[in-house]
Recover the amino acids of this structure.
């Protein structure tokens, strides 16, 4: 038995994808419902029904090549269809009738998203901080820290201990302040360029010195503009230990799920 | 055009970004409501996948060196 796997949704008049191969090499075709078309391929129920799919999601060996194929299909569909609403990995229907029904029932919800995505792609923007470097920059720039250090050097031991604690607390506070300024500078730069931002939740201890993460919606050809935003950020913030990294262009996976208003 | 919109993401960072784009928001199964993968908090699932991916890539790199 096979199930129907959906990659993306486009406007109803979209061309049939030719020669495009999806998961497990299944041919990608269009399923049409009213004013929308879904791009789908058949996948085996033995892998994509709820229980096996859940098990596979924890298995990177299984998942990675399929996630890559999902992305390749959406990359190709993005080239041929503008606007396109790309879906997350693992959108599976029992059959084509279910897909067509979803297209009809959700047309009023999906329709308005097209306009927001027309001509657009998304990037991932990450603000990172090298903590050692940031602290060193703080030490040399902060009057408050300098004053505390000199107080500690001349204070008797008991007071020096308390001043030391205050120094650490001041350092933490000032670092938080600089963090907020760096994140704000990155956000301002994107917003000044007219790009939409979505602040991604950050998982605690995500590692890699990650301070903030955004999805950025921009024109598909905005790569150079974004690179220069990254470079300008680096020029202003590298000395203080902060960097702005960009990845893209991606099909608008995130902004397809974000309310366009 | 270059980048993931057109090309296969084959760099280390891109695999992580791929997991982030495709999985972080969770797997949404709709239609006949016969299948539901969204029962768990997929933000955490996404994190697990990303962390697993880092390990897998690190292991692969160790093997190929």
């Amino acid at each position: 038995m096979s199930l129907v796997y959906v990659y993306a949704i486009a406007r109803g008049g979209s061309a049939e994808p030719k020669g495009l191969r999806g998961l497990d090499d299944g041919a990608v075709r269009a399923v049409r419902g009213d004013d929308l078309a879904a791009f789908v391929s058949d996948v085996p129920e033995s892998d994509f029904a709820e229980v096996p799919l859940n098990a596979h999601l924890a298995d990177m060996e299984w998942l990675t090549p399929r996630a890559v194929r999902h992305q390749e299909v959406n990359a190709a569909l993005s080239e041929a269809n503008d606007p396109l609403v790309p879906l997350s990995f693992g959108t599976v229907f029992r059959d084509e009738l279910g897909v067509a029904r979803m297209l009809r029932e959700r047309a009023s919800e999906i329709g308005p998203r097209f306009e927001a995505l027309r001509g657009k792609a998304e990037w991932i923007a990450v603000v990172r901080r090298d903590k050692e470097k940031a602290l060193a920059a703080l030490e040399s720039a902060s009057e408050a820290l300098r004053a505390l250090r000199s107080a500690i050097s001349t204070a008797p031991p008991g007071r020096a201990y308390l001043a030391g604690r205050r120094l650490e607390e001041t350092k933490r506070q000032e670092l938080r302040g600089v963090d907020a300024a760096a994140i704000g500078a990155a956000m301002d730069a994107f917003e000044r360029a007219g790009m939409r931002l979505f602040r991604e939740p950050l998982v605690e201890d995500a590692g890699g010195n990650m301070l903030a993460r955004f999805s950025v919606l921009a024109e598909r050809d905005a790569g150079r503009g974004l690179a220069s935003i990254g470079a300008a950020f680096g020029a202003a913030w590298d000395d203080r230990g902060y960097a702005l990294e960009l990845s893209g262009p991606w099909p608008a996976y995130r902004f397809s799920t974000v309310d366009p208003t | 055009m270059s980048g993931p919109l057109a090309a296969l993401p084959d760099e280390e960072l891109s695999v992580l970004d791929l997991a982030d784009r495709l999985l972080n928001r969770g797997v949404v199964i709709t239609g006949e409501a016969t299948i539901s993968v969204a029962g768990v908090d997929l933000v955490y699932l996404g994190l697990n996948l990303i962390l697993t991916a880092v390990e897998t890539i690190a292991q692969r790199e160790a093997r190929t060196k």
About this structure: Residues 157-192 of chain A form the longest helix (36 residues).
